[in-house]
Amino acid sequence: MILQALSEAAGISGQEEAVRQIILEAIAGHVEDIRIDPMGNILALKKGTEGDKRPKVMLAAHMDEVGFMVSSVDGNGLIRVVNVGGIDARILPGLRVRIGENKVPGVFIWPPIHVNRDQNVVDLKNLRIDIGASSKEAAQGRVKPGDMVVFDSRFMEIGDKVLRGKAFDDRVGCSLLVDIVQGGPYPADILVAFTVQEEIGLRGAKVAAQRLQPDVALILEGTTANDIPDPNATPDDLMQPNPTCKLGAGPALTVMDRSMIVDPRLLRFLRGIGDKHNIVYQLKTARGGGTDGGSIHLSNTGVPSAVISMPCRYIHSPSAYLNKDDYGATLALA
Fold first, then answer.
1. Are residues 175 and 322 in the same domain?
2. Which residue numbers are catalytic?
3. What pTM did the predictor assign?
């Protein structure tokens, strides 16, 4: 598992270079025909062992993470940013970030009351990043518009079962795909795709699928585990949460999301493998969100596609949680 290195690397959509380098080093010697396409996807082939007319199975995981981009610098040296991907601005005040290639440290702050009188509303346009600069000129010597901004977060183990870190969506999928590539051999040809720009519109996967032309596709993802108690419930409220999926209950097999309906044949196949080999799994039926499968299943003349996801609490934050047992079960099922 190379999840720690992947989680701590910086790589928002469109700036995945650091993540790409880690993956290239990890898969070297385990695949052939490694290519970096014009979008920045890593494409490779792991040849199968069964006959001359082997099925071509695309395995995809996206390298990019949500984050921010510097848009401008105020006269007082505070940094304005725009989001890259979906982030809940309510979690941001007080969080640490790193900016640009030099990893300039900063903290999200509220602006003064006279420029933001409605302090109950958290909106990214009302937030700034403080890097300790006292003027625009001082700040511009350290950061510039277009610089990448990522959460400043340290990967760590929480107890015996839980891992914490940033960018588990989808560095956990990348870590799983690396483990698969390093294993084998497999009967089918594995068309490997580490994709870019998923968080801003499933862009890299569309190009990758057109290039690889798979027979079927399997997407490895990190997904929301909304299995914590309702913060608005009273202590005597017996209502149970209705989670998208739960930590510790195995990988989540998508039935349908906002971007696609999973091919029923592949879903039955994956459930059959899980049942036969006693691999615990759960079904994801909530229709929110989407994955690279949304682009892949519509590519070429259509590609039967399925999604296996790792449940993650606090996704798209600097401190996502995942369960190590879920990781092992996901790897076994994939």
1. yes
2. 198
3. 0.91
